[in-house]
Hints:
The protein has about 230 residues and is of the alpha/beta class.
Amino acid sequence: MNILALDTSMGACSAAVLRTDGAKQELYTRQRAMARGHAEALMPMVAETMAEAGLPFAKLDLIAATTGPGSFTGVRIAIAAARGLALVTRANLFGTDSLTVMALVAAEGVGGEPFAVAVDARRGMLYFALYDGAGRKREGPVLLCPANAAGELPADCGLAVGSGAVLLAEAAARLGRPIDVRLPALQPSAEALAMIAFESGETSVTLRPLYLRPPDAKPQMPTLAVPR
């Protein structure tokens, strides 16, 4: 199976190609930290990764993308690219949330402990989800304030990762719960997404963004003429 995976949901842009043949796996990746510019960076990364893998686009079996939560613009970039490439190549689609992708990356360094992924969603809120020590989802993702997220921590969870982990730990400390903070710079990874897509064996008819919160931009109200 040949999989192309794309992520532009948060503070990095990445593309990965996973080629599998029986027990043999070959993985080719590009990833760059960036606050903006994902739309301009993604397709050159895809071209470089596909060229390094020696894989024509027509040979793709599956195209995967993170569906959010994350940046409103960023989430749409990978999804739009995946949809367009699938239309041209007739490859199947796969999508999963960005926190689950982060959890697979984090699972390598948590020593088998259950953990929370907490991402700073701004305006005093967190994108929050719970995972077991292997990175398998237990609950989430949801949008919660740090105090409510801390209240949702199960008794066996004493570890948090992600850009909102410090905020979660501070809120948990006020409840008398010590939380170990690790990997505060953790980002989703197309490499991890490719592995999730392969191991899942599932496909999607289409991909839809998972935003969890309304957009910051509001439609402008029409100006009413005042009679004189």
